[in-house]
Specification:
The chain is mainly β. The protein contains one helix and 15 strands; from the N terminus they run ββββββαβββββββββ. It has one helix spanning 58-71; strands at 3-5, 10-12, 18-23, 25-29, 35-39, 45-57, 77-79, 86-94, 97-100, 115-119, 126-129, 135-137, 140-144, 157-177, 180-189. Strands 3, 6, 7, 8, 9, 10, 11, 12, 13, 14 and 15 form an eleven-stranded antiparallel sheet that branches. A two-stranded antiparallel ribbon has the order 1-2.
Length: 193
């Protein structure tokens, strides 16, 4: 499932998610059709995701639009596309650490991600950046984040999903019928902590 959260609401996109990838190339054109190309920057691909939220209630649709408007295509957020790993796990939250015995050594396949999205927690739903001190030993995993959690001991099972950092460049609201609306948006991956 492809989703993001505002900390209160979990917004799950429709299954018709589209990912587009374009090489980030600097092109110099000379006369007579000659050109030179070079990869621009250290991240050679521009990745965008076209997401849709069709036939949603007025309240849910407006919450999605407000979320995008609050971010203003400047403030990043964690988006969890379906091709990255996820795990249901009973965890505890304390300061900047998530501890669980339900996570495998690689945490979220294929490897520990740089960002995670947590849903199902009492107080800590949201996207988080992991620092480099995340460890896994004897099937006991501790993920350490760069921001603090509200302490929760023996929480219910939560979903921890690998994520990427994105901004929403554009969004549209369609008035379908009655109190049902559809929202579409373009999320662009950004590479920052």
């Amino acid at each position: 499932m492809a989703h993001f959260t505002d900390g209160t609401n979990d917004f799950t996109a429709d299954k018709s998610l589209t990912k587009s990838t374009k090489p980030n190339v600097l092109l110099v054109e000379f006369g007579d059709g000659y050109e030179q190309r070079i990869i621009k920057g250290i991240n050679p691909f521009i990745e965008t995701y076209s997401v849709s939220f069709a036939n949603r209630t007025r309240t849910e649709s407006l919450n999605i639009i407000r979320f995008f408007e609050d971010k203003k295509a400047v403030t990043k957020f964690v988006f969890a596309p379906p091709d990255l790993g996820n795990k249901e796990a009973t965890t505890s939250f304390n300061t900047k650490a998530i501890t669980s015995t339900d996570l495998t050594g690689t945490v979220l396949s294929p490897s520990t991600p740089s960002h995670i999205l947590i849903t199902g927690s009492n107080n800590n739903d949201g996207g988080y950046t992991l620092d480099q001190s995340s460890t896994a030993t004897n099937n006991n995993t501790t993920l350490t984040t760069t921001s603090s959690f509200t302490t929760e001991n023996s929480t219910a099972s939560v979903n921890i999903q690998a994520g990427i950092v994105v901004i929403c460049d554009t969004w549209n609201l369609s008035y379908n019928y009655g109190d049902y609306y559809s929202v579409t948006g373009t999320l662009r991956r950004v590479y920052e902590a």
